[in-house]
Amino acid sequence: MRKQQQAKGKRAKWLAAIFLASTLLVVVLDLAGTRRQGESEARNQAAGLSELLEERLSSGLRETSLILKSASDSTLVQLLLNKHMLSQEQEQRIDLQMHGKLRQMPYLKQIDILDSSCYLLYSSQKHSPSSQLKTDYCRWYHRNGAQDSSFTSTRSEQGQDGIVLVQKLLNQDDEAIGMVVGVLDRHFFQAEVAKLPVGRFGEILVLDQRQMLQASWPAQAGRMDQPLNELQSTEVLDRHDNYLQFRARSILDQEMRLYSSRLMEGFPFRVVVGIAERDFTRAYNDKATLAVLAWLFTAGLTMLTLRNHLASIRQNRLLSTSAARIRESEELARLTLDTAPVALLLVATDTLRILRANAPAREMLQLPAAPQRADGQTAMLDLPLQLAPVCDWLRSGEIVANREAELERADQSKLWAIVSVELMPQQQIPAALIALYDISERKALENELEEKNRLLNEMAITDPLTRLSNRRHADQTLKEELQRCERYSQPMSVAVFDIDHFKQFNDSFGHQAGDNVLLAVANAAVDCTRSTDVCARIGGEEFLVIFPCTRLRDAEKVMARVQQVLAGTVFPFTDEKVTFSGGITAWRPGDTPSGMLSRADKLLYQAKMAGRDLMLSDGNPD
């Protein structure tokens, strides 16, 4: 009989393990396929968007180049390059022609004509200087000769920033006699970038050949015309001559994305489109969460079923081999439990199930009464013990004697009790006797008393409005610090100050406004001082700061920072700035608390007489 029960238990364990492993494998394979599909779609989206953006930007730049190239067909331009001067009527005609070309491209904001020496002969911007220019395209013009007919770069000058497109102007003999320069507003790039849908956390960058940021989404106004380090790819996914697809963390916001990078054909720019992993993995994460929860629920049900089945097999085996001995001791255990004045439980240590419980225990743990058997005897409860940390003690076989512990019941309610756990030897069913004495009311009173004592101690040394130290605590601290200075010859400084014209705030705006000013001064003092310094309110608007182990010049710097912070504080009820005046003094051998405070008060008075908003010191005693 016993071997058959053991065989049933092993078979149930194997079946449960195989079932859980197979369902987990199905979940993992399905999630892996979903992740691959999402990443593939994101890669295709990034590639398509980068190609679309590259085509739009290249098309706009080529259209601008054609507009500039058409300028060489104008006889007035040729005449200007040959004579370097036109009549007033000719100047008006060429100006009309150039402004007509500007209207052909909305983002083209300026056209300049330069001769072969890079002197500016014409500009659609009337305020442009006519001196010789020293620019990158002038250097390009003289360096390349007749090799390249066009040049593109970026310009970042005050009032002149944009994308520069240059076309050489040729005479009838195809000789370069000058160049036409167009300045394209950089908002052309930003407008095209803003049209692309890259998801909530996506990113778009347009960079020039120097890795300068020309446009971005989300907009990075503060990073424009600043060099960006190369994106550090963690995994290259695809590579061609002018195209690269990779996975990397953004250098702007550290977001992990799938990037598609393309060089603009014929122009020194590169577009980078990134699809954030948070965007394309959102559906995967939701599905993974649901799948894991479903599998955990299935596993929980399976384990619960297996546990109940194994427990049933084990319980049947134990009951079949120990029924006689349990019947012999049943009456004795019942009498012992029911007559005890404290809560008593008899618990099986291997199954952690309650066998017996007297009336106080049933009331404490909210257990039902034990059922009656057919022969008139009281049956065992056979209920699970759900009482932490007593269950942990029983599992480890720990013996406990009169230990105070906080217990957690099955409904997660808690109580304090004195607990004793004693193992019951020489029993067919391993069991333990648990005694519980409720001390929750005593613990509540102790906690209440401890909290009240803490509040009283805090109130005794704290100013109720500013939460700074009060006068009594400050005096005691100053006395202790002076003793430490005398003993170890350490430096120390104190500052006494009060708020200028504080009465006017109360009279003009009310006492609440005055309280707000006091709080602002207190917060500024706390923010600018160390945790070891003591800030105290010693009067209505008078404050004291004790600087242990601090020289006078260092204390002066701290009080200057407090003045700066307070000067930057805006009060809604007035446009005036809140200032304070005071005095700072350092410890001298033989000093007393009253002596140091008296010196600081005199300096405070002198600061008031000198016009207020001053912190005076008596010089470094060293």
Automatic annotation (TrEMBL):
Its EC number is 2.7.7.65. GO terms for molecular function: diguanylate cyclase activity. Gene3D superfamilies: 3.30.70.270, PAS domain (3.30.450.20). Residues 401-451 form the PAC domain. The keyword Flavoprotein does not apply. It catalyses: 2 GTP = 3',3'-c-di-GMP + 2 diphosphate. Keywords: Membrane, Transmembrane, Transmembrane helix. The chain crosses the membrane at residues 12-33. It comes from the Bacteria. InterPro entries: Diguanylate_Cyclase, GGDEF_dom, Nucleotide_cyclase, PAS-assoc_C, PAS-like_dom_sf, Rev_trsase/Diguanyl_cyclase. The keyword Glycoprotein does not apply. Residues 490-620 form the GGDEF domain. CDD domains: GGDEF (cd01949), PDC1_HK_sensor (cd18773), PDC2_DGC_like (cd12915). Pfam families: GGDEF (PF00990). GO terms for cellular component: plasma membrane. GO terms for biological process: cell adhesion involved in single-species biofilm formation; negative regulation of bacterial-type flagellum-dependent cell motility. PANTHER family: DIGUANYLATE CYCLASE DGCM-RELATED, REGULATORY COMPONENTS OF SENSORY TRANSDUCTION SYSTEM. NCBIfam families: GGDEF (TIGR00254). This is diguanylate cyclase.
